């Protein structure tokens, strides 16, 4: 990698989600979201109401501390900050005719701070926080009615913030509905009762909504760029056996499908075959087909790990890298949470996506969750997180390699740039940030912020535009 691999206008920053940082679930006129009844993340069934042991209810109190937190991001040199808008702050129930002004005003103030520090906002419109009323009354994205509610929500955002926000993402990890229908799609029907027909129909509604608001964004904000966001999970054949190669190809299609539809404007042949083979018949109207032709301007994605695939069913055993399916890669190590660490996989994904879609890429999630230990260094609380520095350094070197390969990349935002509550486990102990937040899994702690060793490392990476990477 050469120092010229990262272009001068490359965007450096971090990423968060409203439900994992804001807290203040009952302030400013906010309604309940699905996250407010998920005290243990995806590990347990939703509760009937918010409970005292749900860390997300208070999260890290970004709602009241955003000024200081954004100042910390500016100190690192961020040129972009990815955050999500909580749908239920703007439309508390989700289906009202008029928005909540207090919620809109909060994000006005947030944008004020970003502008003050010269940080570009990257806004995720829907990041795993469907209004609870829409989940319970309409069964979330199972209902076609949500398309209209989402359009109204987006129109409100575009008209209010359109002159201030250039980069928009419609749905976070849209392909995750297949795995976590309540968290990803607000689908209240228990997972065990849902068929593939149900899940793909819900995703179809999201895809149509995404395409419609992409067109709406161009009407209201001609200079804005709208992207999709997918969970990137490269699948390697476990052996050179052609049967394993085909198994990996089929798994890879799970990620490709949603990018193909967003970028090409129609369902790909391999997915239509899958529907035929499994008796899935979606309700797709002529208007839907016309809407889907409104393709995105760029592709954003999360990348944490890769996996292997095999046609040998006897090899499909659980293991350290078997979190999202597939089988563990015997050549890779895993994090404390069993996610296999594969920096070169990021280069593979970037080349693959660029060659496939020829649209600019944006890496909007990448990071290492770990159990950090707060210590005193020269009398100042900090964390010696060399393991995080090593992880991020290795991945960013591969971003540089992909850039040198000719891949067009807009920027890079690390996931959880400040410690936040885990979406999957609702823990604070699974930490990703450059900034340590004094809060524990039991909810105790002062919420004070402390700079980790990685804070200063990332500041150096940004100031050198990647030249400091090795």
UniProtKB/TrEMBL annotation:
Superkingdom of the source species: Bacteria
InterPro entries documented for this protein: GH, GH_1_N_CS, Glyco_hydro_1, Glyco_hydro_1_AS
Database matches in Pfam families: Glyco_hydro_1
Active site positions, chain numbering: 365 (nucleophile)
GO MF annotations in UniProt: beta-glucosidase activity
Keywords for this protein: Glycosidase, Hydrolase
PROSITE patterns: GLYCOSYL_HYDROL_F1_1, GLYCOSYL_HYDROL_F1_2
Gene Ontology biological process: carbohydrate catabolic process
GO cellular component, one term: cytosol
The keyword Hydrolase is assigned to this record: yes
UniProt family annotation: Belongs to the glycosyl hydrolase 1 family.
PANTHER family the UniProt entry points to: 6-PHOSPHO-BETA-GLUCOSIDASE ASCB-RELATED, GLYCOSYL HYDROLASE
Annotated protein name in UniProt: 6-phospho-beta-glucosidase
Naturally occurring in which organism (per UniProt): Rhodococcoides trifolii
């Amino acid at each position: 990698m050469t120092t010229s691999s990262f272009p001068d206008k490359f965007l450096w920053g971090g990423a968060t989600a409203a439900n994992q940082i804001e807290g203040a679930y009952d302030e400013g006129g906010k309604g309940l979201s699905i996250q407010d009844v998920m005290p243990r993340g995806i590990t347990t069934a939703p509760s009937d109401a918010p409970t005292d042991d749900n860390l997300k209810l208070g999260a890290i109190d970004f709602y009241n501390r955003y000024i200081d937190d954004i100042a910390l991001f500016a100190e690192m040199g961020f040129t972009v900050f990815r955050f999500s808008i909580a749908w239920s702050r703007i439309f508390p129930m989700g289906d009202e005719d008029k928005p909540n002004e207090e919620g809109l005003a909060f994000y006005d103030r947030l944008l004020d701070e970003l502008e003050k520090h010269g940080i570009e906002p990257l806004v995720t419109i829907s990041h795993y926080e469907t209004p609870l009323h829409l989940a319970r009354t309409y069964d979330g994205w199972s209902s076609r009615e949500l398309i209209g509610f989402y359009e109204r929500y987006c129109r409100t955002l575009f008209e209010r913030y359109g002159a201030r926000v250039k980069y928009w993402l419609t749905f976070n990890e849209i392909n995750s509905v297949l795995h976590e229908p309540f968290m990803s799609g607000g689908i209240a029907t228990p997972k065990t009762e849902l068929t593939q027909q149900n899940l793909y129909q819900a995703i179809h509604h999201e895809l149509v909504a995404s395409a419609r608001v992409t067109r709406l964004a161009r009407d209201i904000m001609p200079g804005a760029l709208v992207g999709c966001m997918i969970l990137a999970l490269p699948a390697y054949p476990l052996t050179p056996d052609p049967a394993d190669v085909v198994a990996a190809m089929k798994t890879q299609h799970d990620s490709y499908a949603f990018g193909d539809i967003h970028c090409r404007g129609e369902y790909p042949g391999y997915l239509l075959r899958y529907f035929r083979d499994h008796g899935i018949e979606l309700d797709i109207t002529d208007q839907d087909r016309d809407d889907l032709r409104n393709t995105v301007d760029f592709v954003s994605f999360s990348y944490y790990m890769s996996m292997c695939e095999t046609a040998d069913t006897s090899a499909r055993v659980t293991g350290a890298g078997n979190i999202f399916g597939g089988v563990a890669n015997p050549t890779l190590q895993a994090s404390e949470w069993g996610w296999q660490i594969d920096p070169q996989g990021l280069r593979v994904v970037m080349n693959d996506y660029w060659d496939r879609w020829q649209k600019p890429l944006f890496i909007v999630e990448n990071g290492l969750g770990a159990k950090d230990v707060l210590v005193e260094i020269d009398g100042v609380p900090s964390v010696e997180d060399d393991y995080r520095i090593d992880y991020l350094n290795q991945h960013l070197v591969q971003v540089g390699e992909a850039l040198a390969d000719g891949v067009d990349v807009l920027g890079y935002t690390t996931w959880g740039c400040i410690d936040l509550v885990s979406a999957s486990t609702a823990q604070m102990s699974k930490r990703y940030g450059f900034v340590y937040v004094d809060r524990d899994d039991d909810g105790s702690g002062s919420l004070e912020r402390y700079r980790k060793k990685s804070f200063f490392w990332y500041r150096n990476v940004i100031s050198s535009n990647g030249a400091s990477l090795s």
